[in-house]
Amino acid sequence: MDKTPIAINGTNGHVEQSSVLYRQLRQPPPKVVRSKGHYLYTDDGLEIFDASGGAAVCAIGHGHDRVKKAIAAQLDEIEYVYSLFFTTSAAERLSTLLTESTGGQMSRVFIVSSGTEAVEAALKMARQYFTELPQPQKQRTRFIARKQSYHGNTLGSLAVGSHPARRALYEPMLSANVSHVSPCYPYRESNGEDDETYVARLAQELEDEFQRVGPDTVCAFIAETMSGATLGCVPPVPGYLKAMKAVCERHGALFILDEVMAGMGRTGTLHAWEQEGVVPDLQTIAKGLGAGYTSIGALLVNQRVVAVLNQGTGAFMHSQTYQGNPLACAAAYEVQRTIQDENLLANVREMGKYLGELLKKRLSDHPHIGDIRGRGLFWAMELVKNKETKEPFGAKEQLAWNMHLAGLEHGICMIPGNGTVDGVVGDHIIVAPAYNITAQDIDLIVERTEKALRSRLG
Ligand SMILES: Cc1ncc(COP(=O)(O)O)c(C=O)c1O
Q: What is the pLDDT of residue 15?
């Protein structure tokens, strides 16, 4: 048996023979043995502030007693039923909470186990919608998405996403029925235009794409309400999503908002679209829905889409064994009630403002920080080699990942992102802490982030 020590990504290494297929097969990540509140504790004694919330997941911190109790109570009631045969109070309660949170605009909820599955379901729902219209439009098979987006990792969700590095290996297997338009990325792509002109240009680009592929062939346009993993916390320019929805409406296509990362309170409102004056036809959520206490995602379906299926076949042609899992629903329901009862969305807005201000105050003068942007408790710093020209670091330098490692060395976990500029080059790091954070916690996050950054970039 090979017992050669392998360094663990810059932390104190230890080696165990493992059956786990790690993300990096030859590099076991640090082992977390306990978590509580905002902290993770590793087996070699590190105490790490979880400023990433995993991957922007842990909305109420770790080890919340209320959620633990709710999961245990659900185990006593019913742990699993097959959704083809039965429903449960847990699934009913969570779905009602979610539809009510949209003021009834989204009138049905399809509960799955991840963000990827929610996106996959959205794509299928969009297609089915057009086959069940009173005048079916079966020629609609295409999707228009955006460059530098991420929507998940199954073949369908990967096809609408646009991260060349993640797609490359599978490119020959991905649907050719997807095309990509520019993201809304003012830092690099607005050419100094005012917001209105920039939005008009992006809307025209979408219009042109509809015309190029044939407006009556498109099922939907899909976008992250606020760009997350690939672009790094870019809020939409005012009016952008409204303008994109208007183009969809003009051509009878659906408007899908992917809120897997930015939704469920992360940006200061439960649904990120609430701040944009638009309502989607289909909406995906995950991460903050279960906040890490369970694997759960969901597709929210607008009443107008539901009405078409209701009058059509009356059945969504898609299902999964763990759909509507009662344990997952009970956990997510308690997470959401905790967010409500502890008034955490107000805290996201207040602490988010403080976090953004402090990051800018301490780091915007740094020669390698090109942009600091975000909303709510979802902030990114884009790293550049040259601040004047915005030239990025080379992809080979793996700067974002090295920043993540530097963070661990300084007792903080941050999310690294690459491909920011064009899907290949460009680096950013994201902080996305729990909603119940205090101002003191934020002081600590910024202090450790700064130390980590300066340890690598001076
Ligand atoms: C916007 C968006 N959509 C979909 C996904 C995929 O979700 P999951 O990793 O839960 O499958 C992600 C994950 O980061 C995401 O950020």
A: 52
